[in-house]
Structure formats: C-alpha cells, structure tokens
Inverse folding.
C-alpha cells in the first residue's frame, strides 16, 4: 500500500488502519526494559512476598507498582 493511500484511510477514517500495520516490532518510547539487580534484606523480601500474596501478583509487580507510584509523586 502506498503511503498516500494509507494517509487517506487514516484522514478519512474510512476503516481501521491497524490491520495494515506490522505491530510485531512496535515499541513505546521510554518503555524499553532495562534489567537491574537490587539487593534487599531478608525482612524486606518477606514483607514484599506477603504484600504480593495479598494482592495476588508477583513480588516484581509490587516493587514496580510502588516505585512507579513514588516516582509519579515526585514528578
């Protein structure tokens, strides 16, 4: 499909253009994963695990949620 045809479909809102996109390599800017290692004392890991069980999520999810909340507060 030519770019002009794609642009026209988008501009005219003729149809859903997502079917014409290859989303297999799409990425959100700033959302790339960067792996880090963090050491926590045993009591903190136990507390994180209790909270994770209470919420029904993983320890990693609890850490990410709490960090995201704190960073949003600071922003």
């Amino acid at each position: 499909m030519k770019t002009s045809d794609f642009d026209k479909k988008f501009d005219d809102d003729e149809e859903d253009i997502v079917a014409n996109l290859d989303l297999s390599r799409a990425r959100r800017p700033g959302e790339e994963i960067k792996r880090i290692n963090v050491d926590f004392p045993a009591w903190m890991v136990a507390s994180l695990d209790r909270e994770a069980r209470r919420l029904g999520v993983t320890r990693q999810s609890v850490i990410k949620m709490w960090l995201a909340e704190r960073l949003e507060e600071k922003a």
About this structure: The two ends are 42 Å apart (CA to CA).
